[in-house]
Amino acid sequence: ERFIFSMSGKWIDDQDTNWDCPYVWGEWVHSAAQELTIGHSDCHTRTYVPRGGGSAQHYYSCIPDDVVWKLTPLTQKGMTFFIGAARVSEIDAVCSVPQLPAEMDSSEAAQRVLDKERGDDQWQRRVEAKRIASIRHFIDKGGNLIANSAILFSGPNDSISVSDDGTVKVSFEGFLEKTDTEWCDHRGKADKRPVWLIDGQHRTRGLAQSETGIDLEIPIIYFPPSFDLSQSAKIFAEINTLQKKLSPLHTLFMQHRFGIPSPTGKRDFKTPWDDGKAESRNSRANHLSYECAAYLASNEEGPLYDRIKILDSNSSNFAIIKAGQWVDFSRSWFGEGQIYGPDTCTLNQEEINNEVENYFRALVETCNHGDWEDGRHRWCLKANPKGLIQRHGPSQAILKLYPHAWLKAKGLGADSPISVSVFKEVLAPLTWVDWLDTRLKGTFLTGGERGRNALRVWMRNAIEHGEMYGQDEVMSDEIHSQAGRGILSHPGDGEITVVGDKKWPYGGKALVIRAQRPANTLATSVWSIIDSKKVNRSPDNPSIQSSRGVAEYTLRYSKWMDDVDHMDIRVDWYNTVTPPGKALLRLIKP
């Protein structure tokens, strides 16, 4: 405990029960492979535990007797499963875990999104050595007990028989592999144990590596072959939204693969999603968005091949955006009334995917034209050096820009799907943005959402303005609030006027003041009012959101106005460069 305090600054006894201790007693044993002598049956000779505590390999001198469990049938909604208890050594001996590979290319993960039968035995999270060590240490201490049920599933397999009364029999003869002198439950790296450990892998493996734990009986829930894989996997995913959560990318992968509904619209993947019903619209948007990302990441000839991080095991160096971010920032394309809405879109899914890919092809070609003086690509075709818009935060701006580019293309009379050449015409104002310029990173890569929004605003203003300017003008830090120019510049000054012919607020007659939003500024304006006595009369909430390029403030009569001669109104507009742009107005009392 003193070691943990010295490393983390926290005493274990002072933390709540959900605190994730950074160190667990005994976790260091998994820094190298181990051999254990404890295991199931007298035939067991040794257990090989690989470095990191992964899938253990059990070796036997002979074939053990069948494992037989006497379980109790339980029927819910017409589906029968079984509950009961089993010895840890038996569960460990006959159960494998359908875990994901330690490493996987983004393109491979994307293909698994598009083809749900691909890797259908690899979707569980990988074992964590620290959790195994924690459970082993827990059960070895005093009177600690394990009461949580392990959840098991088996598909059709000759090694397994299940009777209606709840007798489950697992034969070792059907899955053990003969080596020169022993029998083993692995063939190479392939785990041949026929029962899947759907939930409780850390619990079971931790107990199985403890001389105290291996002979314990623990509760089990067993789903027989009459349950299909998707039902069992859905149960696993739903359980893990309540216990230790899966990572966001793993959760998204599971929700899509097994059609898991959610009360949160942006993660609802219930099926069917293409039935045209109003309650399916969130699921439609999520499916189309996620599968679009998967198509782009898996198309070897496309600009985003291996560029979208589908699972945590995918390389981060090459990726420009995570699949969760992709869904968050593109699902709106598929909403009602939007460019690919159920009520507006005439394209099929393949055509939508091709059209989105055409946009990215056009963007890459726009960035990598042949006229850069140094000859370097501004959209890096390798892992590095990445330009600004190939980084995980700023790349979101490309997705938010897409509907505006699409509408601009349609305004040019483009056919569907929109071609690369038409998208290049729309994106031409971005031709001379030097995405490798380090000043851009200092301007837009910091500040989180504010930086991303400022970048999106500049890009949108540029393509809507429609003019292509030279590199000096585009990259200028001295051209203020000019669409398509001055990407590094602070905002220019704006205009402010009084709506109507009133000059001062009186009684029930309020004054409406309107400020024009300068180009290349964020949508929120900040208002201040100082009266002629230098008293601050600014609104309690000085931030006013602009709409359609204007922000309005209604100035109502207040008694203090009787004692002043004038008031000065200032409206500030911001991007990520200081100082802000301003608009000034003096109201003089008649």
From TrEMBL:
Protein's name according to its UniProt entry: DGQHR domain-containing protein
Organism: marine metagenome
